[in-house]
Amino acid sequence: MSDFVKQLFLYRVYCTVEEAFFTVWAETEPTVCPNNNTHAIDPERTTIIDEVSTVSLKDRDGKVKVQNTCRRPGLMTYFTSTGDDISDVNDVGNGTELIIDHKIGDPLNEIIYIDFNIVNNITDLFNGLIFWKGGELDKLSFSVVPTTVNAPTGENTNFALYGGYLIIPAAGDGTIDLDLVALEEPDGGLVYMPPDELNTAKTAFWNADWNSTTGKFENITAAPAGDGSYNIFQEEIVFTRFVNKLFILDDGNIRLDSFDAQELGHGFRFKVELDINGDDHDVSFSVLATLYREKTV
After folding, report:
1. CA–CA–CA angle 206, 207, 208 (5° rounding)
2. Distance from chain centroid for Cα 50
3. Please, what's the largest Cα pairwise distance for the chain?
4. Partner of 265 at 20 to 30 A CA spacing, among 89, 103, 181, 208?
5. What are the boundaries of each domain within the chain?
């Protein structure tokens, strides 16, 4: 028997006076701007980006059932050693494999990138397993980095480069020539910046709407105050480093335990790196990642 208490949704609404998106938790769809309840919203641009529910589950004896999980409602556990094919935004599990099989003569530093289709498939990273063979104190590192764009320089544009890595809006005095049409593609370079566990928004300089029918982004607009939802990166930076220089020796495996799940934003990539120690030698490893995903096929 279950006793439903309350269900809350995190709505993303577009306020017409502010000409900006805002988020608000509510039981029902908002009809006014959460920034100012006298301001109207555009209901066609309202979306649900998260939800929570309070449910009391009891067994036949009336005792409350408790499950220790950080899996969000609506997501399923997904074990994988393969990413998604990002040339097909709806693909699940047919991308790059989480394997490096190093042979003598290969580069002493090897890097692979693993991509996931997230814009149509909410995905959280939970934990993983690493298996290796032939280690001689070689080092493994595992990071999350953004998709990048290769934008040429220009003059008097609406795009500027901040810190040598981030493309931000400019007012006709920018030095980056960015193709907005290319950004409409799901792998065009827009990187979603999910809020943290306290629902605090990250600094982001662009807004966009995802059209699941066309499979493209639309209404890409600047958020010069940093209150947008997406960023565009010219150069790679590290968002999170989950494994830093794990030394592997002989044959073995290790479970990377965690009691937390981290939301992956659209455009996030896994960067897996192997550094060979000493004289070149054969060594191989694979990673089994545990994800929580909306779709597993």
Report:
1. 130
2. 14
3. 73
4. 181
5. 2-57, 76-146+238-293, 153-233
Q: Say if residue 1's pLDDT is above 60.
A: no
Q: Which fold has domain 76-146+238-293?
A: Jelly Rolls (2.60.120)
pTM: 0.75
pLDDT one-digit tens code per residue, 101-151: 999 999 999 999 999 999 999 999 998 999 999 999 999 999 999 999 999
Identify whether the C-beta of residue 124 lies closer than 8 Å to the C-beta of residue 118: no
DSSP lists the bridge partners of residue 50 as 10
Q: How many CB atoms lie within 10 A of CB 106?
A: 15
Residues 6+ apart with CB under 8 A from 61: none
Token pair belonging to 106:
């290969």
Which residues touch 246 (CB under 8 Å, ≥6 apart)? 130, 139, 140, 141, 254
Backbone angle region of 150, left / alpha / beta, with phi > 0 → left and psi within -120 to 50 → alpha: beta
Burial 156-166 (b: 16+ CB within 10 A, else e): ebbbbbeeeeb
3 state DSSP class of 182: helix
CA–CA gap between residue 216 and residue 239 (Å, rounded): 25
Token readout for 261 is 């799940």
Quick: pLDDT tens for 217-273. 999 999 999 999 999 999 999 999 989 999 999 999 999 887 788 899 999 999 999
Nearest to 189 by CA among 116, 113, 253, 268: 268
91 CB neighbour count, 10 Å cutoff:
16
The pLDDT of residue 145 is 97
